[in-house]
Amino acid sequence: MTEAQGRGNVPTWPGTVPGGPPLGAEKALGKEAPSPFRSFFLGGFECSSHRRPSGRRVDVIDATGHDRFAAQDYARLAAEGLLAARDGLRWHRIEEQPGVYDFGSVGSQVRAARAAGVQVVWDLLHYGTPDHVDLFAPDFPEVFARFARAAALALAPETDGPLWLCPVNEISFLAWGGGEVAYLNPFERGRGMVLKRQLVRAAICAVDAVREVCPDARFLHAEPLLHVTAHPERPWEAAAARQENEAQFEALDMLAGRLHPELGGAARYLDVIGLNFYPYNQWRHHPQREGRERVPYDHPAYRPLRQLLAEVAARYHRPLLIAETGTEDEERPAWFRMVSREALAARAAGIPLHGVCLYPVVNHPGWDDDRHCHNGLWDYPDRQGHREADPALLSELRAAQHQLARLDVDPSVPELVP
């Protein structure tokens, strides 16, 4: 998700889960472990394809021309040292009829990425589903698993190295937006936890189905990274704030079998944990969502990103990826500078962070109002597929890459020491 999609507030997700001990005997991957990604900095192509309450289908890949100009897009990434990326499959175009799969709509992206030498994590479900699919149906997990299996069979032969998939992007947000407040499909209210459980079951079934046909496949589970605190003028809300903050981990805890184990979760379902982090991800708790007070990143009460990453690493003992980060307009360079600095400091401190994905990497129309969102590194394409870069953001990316190179040579780079 991105700030440009017109959501002024971040959701409250129903329910919570106790913290509990770290997962099993799995060891955290420290900075000395080889990264699973070809580059530390990644580019992410926004690929949402859901329906809005009006019935309109959002299709960001089409709106940005990424499918038509995939070759140019991936060549640009490679030229700037972004040798890994997030991209997506549009399920509604692949399975127009139940059980009939046509992957032609993603062919240009697959071929372009391979030709450019860019490693891709493919999103299978980025909010959008075919109209004939019912997310609440008892057989939805099996329906999704069959799609995932078909996708693995189609993508693996065209992939150099392990196939990377993100089964369901932001289970938490889709459960809230689609099951709690009717913001997007399937437009239900008060059923957020039911939908969250259903999506977790679907992700588990998808991982199993993919591993049957592609045993070396790797998986990213991307969830928002939040920090919620009580307002200093309302200290009696501290417990509610802690509960709201803890709820962000429900989906991952379900996948790991720590919460609702009857869903079938287990430690083996957590591979790389993706954390989506935006300027609106820290706020003061308020009983009404519209009453929240966002905590800006230059505020004294703002929790440093490196600390949040350390807590997630200690909780799950898994490699981490900042799977989405970015903002709009003139704030883009400063935000990316802060995130990259915090990420490199976390890496220098031994936190198993293996990348930062600039998301989106190309500008796109807003979900709700079709405005021209200046939130990417590159703008809309011209007729030949050329995209103008934002010079300030590009400069920050290159500076962060230079800093990363220095850190690789000397892990004690002074300005990165926490």
Describe this structure in words.
This is Beta-glucosidase. It comes from Deinococcus carri. InterPro entries: GH. With 418 residues, this protein is α/β, with parallel strands linked by helices. It has a single domain, classed as Glycosidases (TIM Barrel). Helix content is 33%, strand content 16%. Strands 1-2-3-4-5-7-10-11 form an eight-stranded parallel beta barrel, surrounded by six helices. Strands 6-8-9 form a three-stranded mixed β-sheet. The radius of gyration is 20 Å and the shape is globular. 50% of the residues are buried.
Task: List its traits.
alpha/beta, TIM Barrel, 16% strand, disordered N terminus, three-stranded mixed β-sheet, 33% helix, 12 helices
| Whole-number total of structural domains | 1
Query: Structural class per helix/strand content?
Result: alpha/beta
CATH class: Alpha Beta
The CATH architecture can be given as: Alpha-Beta Barrel
Helix content: 25-40%
Region (Disordered): 1-29
InterPro entries: GH
Protein name: Beta-glucosidase
List the SSEs and their pairings.
Layout lengths: L40 E4 L15 H5 L5 H10 L4 E5 L2 H4 L12 H10 L2 E7 L14 H16 L8 E5 L2 H9 L12 H22 L4 E7 L2 E3 L8 H9 L3 H6 L16 E6 L4 E3 L8 E2 L10 H12 L3 E6 L6 H17 L4 E6 L5 E2 L6 E2 L4 E4 L5 E3 L1 H19 L9
Parallel strand pairs: 1-2, 1-11, 2-3, 3-4, 4-5, 5-7, 6-8, 7-10, 10-11
Antiparallel strand pairs: 8-9, 12-13, 14-15
Concise synopsis of the structure shown:
This protein has a single domain, classed as Glycosidases (TIM Barrel, Alpha-Beta Barrel).
